[in-house]
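Input (structure):
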């Protein structure tokens, strides 16, 4: 999917190094998780906070069980906004 500067496919180690460098350049505090899995979680929470349907998030993230996806929607603060209109 992604290629290195030399044109070969990126390994998981390459991705981790790129993210570590980006975290350092962004001057993130030590202990802030900045790895592929943290980005995956951020994506799930962002989709949930935007009101994306839980089944859509499940399919996008590739979860077999809806229970793995529900954690994102349980914490979405705006999920009830507009549920009842005057």
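Output (sequence):
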């Amino acid at each position: 999917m992604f290629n290195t500067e030399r044109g070969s496919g990126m390994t998981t180690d390459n991705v981790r190094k790129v993210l570590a460098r980006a975290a350092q350049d962004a001057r993130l505090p030590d202990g802030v998780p900045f790895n592929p899995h943290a980005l995956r979680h951020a994506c799930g929470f962002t989709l949930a906070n935007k009101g994306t349907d839980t089944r859509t998030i499940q399919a996008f993230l590739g979860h077999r069980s809806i229970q793995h996806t529900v954690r994102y929607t349980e914490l979405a603060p705006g999920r009830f906004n507009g549920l009842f209109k005057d």
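Notes: Residues 12-25 form the longest helix (14 residues). The CA atoms of residues 48 and 73 lie 5 Å apart.
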